[in-house]
Amino acid sequence: MTNKSYQLAVVGATGAVGQQMLKTLEERDFPISTLKLLSSKRSAGKTITFRGQPYTVEEATPASFEGIDIALFSAGGSVSKALIPEAVKRGVVCVDNTSAFRMDKDVPLVVPEVNEHDLQSHQGVIANPNCSTIQMVVALEPIRQAYGLNKVVVSTYQAVSGAGLDAVDEMEAQTKAVLAGEEASASVLPVSGDKNHYQIAFNAIPQIDLFQENGFTFEEMKMINETKKIMHLPSLEVAATCVRLPIETGHSESVYFETEKSGASAAEVKERLSNAPGVTLQDDPTNQVYPMVTTAVGKPDVFVGRIRKDLDRDNGFHAWIVSDNLLKGAAWNSVQIAESLIKLNLIKKQA
């Protein structure tokens, strides 16, 4: 990738996404000269092994970013809002995995397969989009390039790991309780800070994040607004319904989309997707081949299948999209952004 090596910080190193970031950095042989693992005061002091070496996790403070070139953030929006401006002041390029800066007009919101060029305008902060948005735009971008895009309607089937480790633990405890004929207690999902909490085991919860005044949840509005920003299509019609399912890892999406140009066949759309970066086409209904979380988890690609033409609209299509929400939806996309910044020579190495 480069002959240079960089001083890197991972903020939120003890969390699910932070752990996956470290694993991805290791697998990609990312060029690191110095690694600093940062977290909240509560998690500071833990030891994490990276490339065979033990690292002590430190509490993240403004001074932590002295001499750092790149920082990957995944420690919650409030941490990002407090610390990213301090890091940028110290010359750090920050890749943020929270929603804190995503819709800021001066912050590029980047999925490298779709809009890597937007990195050129960064002012020290790059936002990593919502996990559900990422996998959808990776699949839709080759279609947009070929035929244009007018409308997108998506229903998501999202894994519990998207809500954090506490939610995964609660799902496992509830599953054991239900199977033992006991009552399943709930305190995390759908949203830990909301009024009511519901069992996720053996259930489907049609709420991810808080409801907004328009009746959509914040997660749904993230998908709507982020898709328009990433694809530079402010007038694109987008609607989303986001549902939590009792699956540990891996988000699935049923997507209906309408192209600007009519006349394309399902076979032509499949051909475009089969050659698209970051996409694996799994579409052979005769042999029951289609994307599933059980085969997508642990892999960096976005898997697409069940592509078929709408029965009523010549420019309408349906697709099924699956990806690992902790990998492409978070850690891998963040590391990919960092790799793109290096490739495009957009990181000024500090002394």
Automatic annotation (TrEMBL):
Signal peptide: none annotated. SMART domains: Semialdhyde_dh (SM00859). It catalyses: L-aspartate 4-semialdehyde + phosphate + NADP(+) = 4-phospho-L-aspartate + NADPH + H(+). It is an enzyme of class 1 (oxidoreductase). GO terms for biological process: 'de novo' L-methionine biosynthetic process; diaminopimelate biosynthetic process; isoleucine biosynthetic process; lysine biosynthetic process via diaminopimelate; threonine biosynthetic process. InterPro entries: Asp-semialdehyde_DH_CS (IPR000319), Asp_semialdehyde_DH (IPR012080), Asp_semialdehyde_DH_beta (IPR005986), NAD(P)-bd_dom_sf (IPR036291), Semialdehyde_DH_NAD-bd (IPR000534), Semialdhyde_DH_dimer_dom (IPR012280). Gene3D superfamilies: Dihydrodipicolinate Reductase, domain 2 (3.30.360.10), NAD(P)-binding Rossmann-like Domain (3.40.50.720). NADP(+) binds at T14, G15, A16, V17, R42, S43, S161, G162, N325. Its EC number is 1.2.1.11. The keyword Protein transport does not apply. Substrate binds at Q158, R244. Phosphate binds at R102. GO terms for molecular function: aspartate-semialdehyde dehydrogenase activity; NAD binding; NADP binding; protein dimerization activity. Keywords: Amino-acid biosynthesis, Diaminopimelate biosynthesis, Lysine biosynthesis, Methionine biosynthesis, NADP, Oxidoreductase, Threonine biosynthesis. The keyword Cytoplasm does not apply. Residues 7-122 form the Semialdehyde dehydrogenase NAD-binding domain. The active site is at C131 (acyl-thioester intermediate), H251 (proton acceptor). It comes from the Bacteria. PROSITE patterns: ASD. Pathway: Amino-acid biosynthesis; L-methionine biosynthesis via de novo pathway; L-homoserine from L-aspartate: step 2/3; Amino-acid biosynthesis; L-lysine biosynthesis via DAP pathway; (S)-tetrahydrodipicolinate from L-aspartate: step 2/4; Amino-acid biosynthesis; L-threonine biosynthesis; L-threonine from L-aspartate: step 2/5. Homodimer. Catalyzes the NADPH-dependent formation of L-aspartate-semialdehyde (L-ASA) by the reductive dephosphorylation of L-aspartyl-4-phosphate. Belongs to the aspartate-semialdehyde dehydrogenase family. This is Aspartate-semialdehyde dehydrogenase. The lineage of its organism: Bacteria, Bacillati, Bacillota, Bacilli, Bacillales. The gene is asd.
